[in-house]
Amino acid sequence: LQKAIEQDPFFPDAYVRLGQLYLLQGDRARYEEYLNQALKVDPLNELALDIKNNSCKFICVLEGK
Fold it and tell me: What's the CA dihedral at 54, 56, 41, 22 to 10 degrees?
């Protein structure tokens, strides 16, 4: 995912998924950082909005699960 971001810093899904990995590792600050970066790149990104709104239409990481 880091390589994907390096190759295309305007690919918001990579930021979202990397943030989810940090959340799984218990790093909520980095999770939020990457989720916010995804929304900065694309404020209408469905994946980022889905996760931010806890809709979970796509694969979501559930905190504490």
Answer: 80
pLDDT tens per residue across span 5-20: 999 999 999 999 999 9
* Orientation angle between helical segments 28-41 and 12-24, nearest 10 degrees: 170
Q: Locate tokens 């806890």: which residue?
A: 54
In whole angstroms, what is the distance from residue 17 CA to residue 55 CA? 16
| Separation between Cα atoms, residue 21 and residue 18, nearest integer Å | 5
Q: What is the pTM of this model?
A: 0.83
Q: Return d(Cα 1, Cα 19) in angstroms, integer.
A: 10
Helices (H), the chain: 2-7, 12-24, 28-41, 46-52
CA distance 53 to 41: 18
